[in-house]
Amino acid sequence: MGLTRLTGAAVLAGVTALIAPVGVTAAWAEPLRIEITDGVIEPLPFAAPAFQAETSGAGQYAAEIARLVAADLAGTGLFREIPPSAFISNVTSFASPVAYEDWRAINAQALITGAVSENGGNISVKFRVFDVFSGQQLGDGLQFGGSATAWRRMAHKVADVVYSRITGESGYFDSRVVFVSESGPKNARRKRLAVMDYDGANVQFLTDSSSLVLAPRFSPAGDKVLYTSYETGFPQVNVLDVNSVTKRILSSKEGTMTFAPRFSPDGSRVVYSLSAGGNTDIYTMNVNGGGEQRLTSSPSIETAPSYSPDGQYIVFESDRSGTQQLYIMSAGGGEARRISFGPGRYGTPVWSPRGDLIAFTKQNSGRFHIGVMRTDGSEERLLTASFLDEGPTWSPNGRVIMFTRESQGASGAPALYSVDISGRNLRRVVTDGPASDPAWSPLLK
Predict the structure, then answer these.
(1) pTM of the shown model
(2) Do β-strands 44-47 and 79-81 pair in parallel, antiparallel, or remain unpaired?
């Protein structure tokens, strides 16, 4: 994996020419659809023949884009790619009619076809999705265009459209993850902020390793990152502009420490923990400074706050009951309601972007778990179990959770993993070296 130093707007360099319809929409009575439930799902078999290269310089991009689209879909656990070796016929032209019988014969339920053209360093990708068994096209064909260097983004956008048309839900492939990249021996780790595609590609660094950094969090627009830095010798919340890679301390008061920050849903405020005089409480302030408001006042430790998607409530962890548990309060502060009652300790709660679930870290009987529960604390479900799992973050569509898993022993190191909300499809996210504290961005624009 190539690692490069971030420069300017390279992090969010995007697709410049966006969606345009290709062809017409066909009508169908019962469209192909995966009904996503918490039960075991039989992956839907799909075929993704190599995209057609319509110009001489497009061959490499056509092959790579088709492979990445297939990898995105198969990686969800909801889809199963039929290998090209099983194909009876191939697509030789984007305009050719689909030989549905040949695809039905190999049990393909969905077919994705595409074509790529290249001109002067820019590429154009057009594609269609077909319901093989009904013999119908699923919606309009679409076209994306932009710099050839953004071919991965275009592939992710194609996969998002396919995912959405078959599941009825938004995708999450065209997104990024900010995390802590670690290096060096276990007892002297160097840490710096980095950002990557959701699948671990295109890593770019946001800070150097001169000071300890922790807990990065994307803004709702994906243009800023909050994180905790020890650059001053004490933990302080910093705000970093992703495009310019400039940073500033959010708030600095002598004798205080600030940490565990998160943005409000509209991006205008930051909620965080402030420790002063041996007491830790939750505060909020304007993202540009000022307007500080104390939300809790208790001799206990109150930390890890996370807003509900509508901005009306905050979930946080507290040991006010004697053990680490989860509580919900109004976004303006006031009385808090406990929602965790199972055995063990609960921490790092994060509200789902859908608003229906809260993800958390749980420690019980010597094991760590990533779990989810309803916002009233009901239907608790543990998704993982290991020596150390912690720090969940939600995909933009609320269907997948990424987290840190640390291995045991002197050579143990943190790595990033993902799991869907039913506890299926546990996967390691490949990074070049140890990695921790992931935070998912919204879908890119």
Answers:
(1) 0.91
(2) parallel
Under the phi-then-psi rule, with left for phi > 0, alpha for psi from -120 to 50, and beta for the rest, what region is 87? beta
The predicted pLDDT at position 90 comes to: 86
Residues whose CB falls within 8 Å of the CB of residue 318, separated by 6 or more in sequence, listed in order = 296, 298, 300, 301, 302, 303, 324, 325, 327, 336
In terms of C-beta density within 10 A (0-12 exposed, 13-18 middle, 19 or more buried), how is residue 118 classed? Answer: buried
Asked if 226 and 213 touch (Cβ cutoff 8 Å), the reply is no
CATH code that applies to domain 176-440: 2.120.10.30
* Residue ranges in the chain modelled with pLDDT below 50: 1-14, 16-20, 23-29, 40
Strand partners, 214: 228
- The CATH class that applies to domain 3-167 reads alpha beta
**368 φ, ψ (degrees, to nearest 5):** -110, 145
Element (H, E) at 63: helix 59-74
Task: Determine the pLDDT at residue 251.
Answer: 77
Indicate the DSSP class of residue 98.
P
- The answer to whether 116 and 146 are in contact (CB under 8 A) is no
Catalogue the E-assigned strands of 161-221: 176-183, 190-197, 203-205, 213-218
Q: How do residues 380-429 score in pLDDT, each as one tens digit?
A: 999 999 999 999 999 999 999 999 999 988 778 999 999 999 999 999 99
What is the rounded CA–CA span in Å between residue 301 and residue 264? Answer: 21
> In the block, which residue shows the tokens 């507290």?
318
DSSP string, 296-333: ---SSBEEEEEE-TTSSEEEEEE-TTSS-EEEEEETT-
Residues 158, 151: contact at Cβ < 8 Å?
Answer: no
Residue extents of the structural domains in the chain = 3-167, 176-440
Burial class (CB in 10 A: 0-12, 13-18, 19+), 332: exposed
Q: What is the pLDDT of residue 35?
A: 67
* CA-wise closest residue to 218 among 227, 210, 209: 227
* Nearest Cα residue to 304 out of 313, 319, 316: 316
Looking at residue 437, its pLDDT comes to 98
- Cα–Cα distances (Å) from 316 to 23, 119, 179, 298, 373, in that order, read 50, 52, 21, 13, 14
**Counting runs of H as helices and runs of E as strands, what totals does the chain give?**
3, 33
Amino acid at 299: P
